[in-house]
Specification:
Distance between the termini: 55 Å
Number of domains: 4
Mean pLDDT: 77
Strand content: 15-25%
Radius of gyration: 29 Å
Oligomer: single chain
């Protein structure tokens, strides 16, 4: 029997425990209808799906290494993640551990067209998330124009009354004292000692070094609040005189040392092998003699001296550009694009015809109504407990929520993407989302000094060729060979 775990998540004020209950109910019904045994449930409450900083999500990924289950079952794909890059990374981890992500409400077949459709849905989910974030930002912008408090942590020295930020007469003098002392060269530790001797504490304890440095770095004390490229002077009343603030900033900048590390995304990590020795190609970052930061791919066999491989290091940016351009050219060929679009259209028609989302919701509403009727019959017969009333209201709320979702799903029946819309959306995703392109299109890259061989998942074929070259998705391979000569070779290789 097939096995699975359920992952559920809600993120906003408009969602609650009821949302979790609904997700679990639909997933459990999907599992029963498809002979899937549920082994465990992972739930993140009040967590966004735009990043992977979710405790139970991380626990699920970690536990997948045990290889105890075959599927991760979610209500919809956006419950798993709304970030395409992180989705691709975690799905790869799960695939490596023998696990596939299933959506209970989205009929995505396990075919090449289904994989492409899944990427489209993920793109739409991320677009929705970005659009929602834009609306929130727009509302907050209007609030900032009015000078209203935005919520979150309030700097020491301020208070809020009726959504307006005001100077706290008790603590603001302490802020001024810290700035004045630092501006004349007094060390932070000595400032803290002086405050402690005066009996001035922060949250019942002597000021911490980081707290004082945070105060010295906060521009709001000068009356200025920055949000992106915009400057607002009507939100935070000025506590520190401009002259003293600027003097402190000059000292801070002079004393500042160290640089923040930059997170670099190596697109082909775990996708490349050396054409000479067969070892994986690793992603590397180093510093040239002139101090310039260089990023490159290097044969792991050569790096760890496992063999006598002499494979040259390859420049990251240039290699990725050459490979991505070659893949885009291949996938943009009319016969391939036509096959992709027709496959997605057929899958879309199947979804609309089957409409498991609507059917599942209707069945869930019927089951909930039956549960409510049974409860009412029990009440009429005098079977009442302390939790009866609570359960009654829960069932009524569930029915209301299900009715709302049914209306939404029925409205979707009138929405159907045309071939031109699908083709345009898919092309844009390929261009704008190289991570998605790498995840779904590339099976393997074989790297030589004089050529690059790219093994692509071929969505136009469904059966193995004579060589039997197929991957886990059931795609046959299409090989693209790029000859490296002259300028192109010089552009890619590090000597």
């Amino acid at each position: 029997m097939k096995t699975a775990v359920i992952y559920a998540r809600y993120s906003s004020d408009s969602q609650s425990e009821q949302s979790i209950d609904g997700q679990l109910r639909v997933c459990e019904e999907f599992a029963r209808n498809n002979d899937i045994l549920i082994l465990d449930t992972y739930i993140d409450r009040a967590m966004t799906g735009t990043n992977d900083n979710r405790p139970d999500f991380q626990r699920m990924i970690k536990n997948s290494y045990r290889r105890e289950w075959t599927y991760v079952l979610v209500y919809k794909l956006d419950r798993f993640s709304r970030n395409k890059y992180e989705t691709a990374i975690h799905k790869k981890t799960l695939r490596d551990n023998g696990t596939k992500v299933l959506s209970a409400m989205e009929n995505i077949p396990d075919t090449p067209e289904g994989i492409i459709l899944e990427s489209l849905l993920e793109g739409m989910n991320q677009y929705y998330s970005a659009e929602l974030a834009q609306k929130v930002r727009r509302g907050m912008h209007e609030s900032r124009i009015k000078g209203n408090y935005q919520g979150g942590g309030l700097p020491y020295g301020y208070k809020v009354i009726d959504k307006k930020i005001l100077i706290d007469e008790e603590t603001a003098p302490v802020v001024n004292y810290i700035y004045e002392q630092y501006s004349i060269g007094v060390y932070v530790r000595d400032i803290i000692s002086a405050l402690t001797r005066k009996g001035i504490y922060h949250k019942g304890k002597p000021f911490a070094m980081n707290t004082v440095y945070g105060i010295l770095a906060n521009e709001k004390y000068s009356g200025i609040y920055r949000h992106g490229e915009e400057i607002f002077t009507n939100m935070y009343p000025q506590i520190v005189p401009t002259e003293i603030y600027q003097k402190v900033r000059a000292i801070v900048e002079k004393n500042k040392s160290g640089k923040r590390s930059v997170k670099v995304n190596y697109l082909f990590r775990h996708k490349m092998v050396c054409g000479y020795c067969g070892e994986p190609i690793s992603a590397e970052t180093g510093t040239a003699r002139n101090g310039e930061v260089v990023r490159y791919y290097k044969c792991l066999g050569r790096k760890k001296h496992k063999n006598d491989c002499k494979k040259s290091m390859v420049k990251k940016e240039n290699l990725e550009s050459v490979v991505i351009d070659s893949i885009l050219q291949e996938l943009s060929k009319p016969h391939i694009m036509d096959k992709i679009v027709k496959g997605i259209l057929a899958t879309q028609d199947y979804q609309l015809k089957l409409n498991s989302s609507l059917n599942s919701l209707i069945r869930a509403k019927t089951n909930t109504e039956n549960a409510l009727n049974n409860l009412m019959n029990a009440i009429e017969q005098g079977i009442i407990s302390n939790t009866t009333n609570k359960r009654l209201h829960e069932l009524e709320r569930q029915i209301e929520d299900l009715e709302r979702q049914i209306l939404i799903e029925r409205s979707k029946l009138t929405i159907k993407y045309t071939a031109d819309e699908i083709e345009e959306f898919y092309k844009q995703m390929l261009i704008l989302s190289p991570e998605m392109l790498v995840n779904y299109a590339i099976y393997q890259i074989v790297l030589y000094d004089d050529k690059i061989v790219i093994k692509l998942n071929n969505p136009t074929k469904r059966s193995p060729d004579d060589s039997g070259n197929t991957n886990s998705h059931g795609f046959c391979f299409t090989k693209i060979s790029i000859k490296l000569q002259g300028v192109k070779m010089d552009m890619l290789m590090y000597v």
